[in-house]
């Protein structure tokens, strides 16, 4: 996605990054020796107070510019209109880092990315059931490079940092700008409630940080497949019923309860049939 203000030398994310160290340094308290004179203490406090002024100015600029860019971007659709034949399709929005992959920055190498166990099969299967969107706060080039490695279908939409909404140092996903019916949108992330402006559409899963025995994506697949079969009128009602719970464990527990109810019903029907049969013989 192109920057909304082409005449500016740096994007909002770049300004944020370039000023980060300065803001940290200027807000770090100056150590004062216990035996310092009152004048030295006063001078240190005065310096700290003075240095907070440019920091506040930078933060004000970031917030104001973020609000302006949000307004401009808000007039744009993040996703193209759905084909009329696909209006009933659910949209599955997936976070990237610690959800589908694990990314780590190393100065000498750059961004190193590792695939979460089962991610290829997971995305291939979900792409046959859902409209899949990867929505990340990472830079556009990084997102495109990573998704290229894990998208075997070539059908996954990619949204990166310019498509997020910047507030108080956090790049939030804004599902309201997806150009989709919110009742048909599900956002899944290892940090869903912390990274999205629509908690009613969010489900948290376990974060992945290179654990070799991780099976979260494989275990999550039956839950998502069942949604495609049952096709609830509003996914937000499903989300509400799982809020605060481990999605995978809760889903399997509910499946067991349904299975037990079916078995009990079968047994009751069998007893009724046997009872009718024995009535033939007085």
From TrEMBL:
Keywords: Membrane, Mitochondrion, Mitochondrion inner membrane, Protein transport, Transit peptide, Translocation, Transmembrane, Transmembrane helix, Transport
Keyword Lipid metabolism: no
Subcellular location: Mitochondrion inner membrane
SUPFAM superfamilies: HAD-like
Gene3D superfamilies: HAD superfamily/HAD-like
Pfam families recorded: NIF (PF03031)
Record flagged with keyword Transcription regulation: no
Membrane disposition: Single-pass membrane protein
One of the GO BP terms on file: protein transport
GO cellular component: TIM23 mitochondrial import inner membrane translocase complex
Domain FCP1 homology: 85-227
PANTHER family: DULLARD PROTEIN PHOSPHATASE
Subunit structure: Component of the TIM23 complex.
Family to which the UniProt record says this protein belongs: Belongs to the TIM50 family.
Function: Essential component of the TIM23 complex, a complex that mediates the translocation of transit peptide-containing proteins across the mitochondrial inner membrane.
Name recorded for this polypeptide: Mitochondrial import inner membrane translocase subunit TIM50
Organism: Aegilops tauschii (Tausch's goatgrass)
């Amino acid at each position: 996605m192109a920057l909304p203000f082409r005449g500016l030398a740096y994007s909002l994310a770049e300004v944020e990054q370039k000023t980060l160290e300065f803001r940290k340094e200027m807000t770090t308290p100056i150590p004062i020796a216990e035996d310092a004179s009152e004048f030295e203490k006063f001078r240190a406090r005065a310096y700290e107070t003075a240095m907070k002024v440019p920091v506040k100015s930078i933060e004000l600029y970031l917030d104001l510019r973020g609000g302006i860019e949000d307004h401009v971007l808000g007039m744009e659709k993040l996703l193209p209109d759905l084909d009329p034949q696909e209006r009933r399709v659910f949209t599955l929005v997936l976070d990237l880092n610690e959800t589908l992959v694990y990314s780590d920055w190393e100065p000498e190498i750059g961004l190193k990315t590792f695939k979460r166990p089962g991610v290829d099969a997971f995305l291939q299967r979900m792409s046959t059931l859902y409209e899949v969107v990867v929505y990340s706060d990472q830079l556009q080039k990084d997102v495109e490079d990573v998704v290229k490695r894990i998208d075997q279908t070539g059908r996954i939409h990619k949204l990166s940092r310019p498509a997020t909404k910047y507030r108080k140092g956090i790049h939030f996903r804004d599902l309201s700008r997806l150009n989709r019916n919110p009742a048909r949108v599900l956002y899944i992330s290892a940090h869903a409630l912390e990274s999205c402006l629509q908690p009613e559409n969010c489900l948290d899963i376990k974060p992945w940080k290179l654990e070799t025995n991780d099976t979260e994506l494989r275990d999550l697949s039956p839950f998502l497949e069942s949604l495609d079969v049952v096709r609830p009128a509003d996914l937000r009602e499903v989300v509400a019923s799982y809020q605060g719970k481990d999605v995978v464990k809760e889903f399997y527990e509910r499946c067991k309860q349904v299975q037990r109810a079916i078995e009990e019903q079968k047994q009751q029907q069998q007893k009724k049939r046997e009872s009718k049969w024995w009535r033939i013989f007085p």
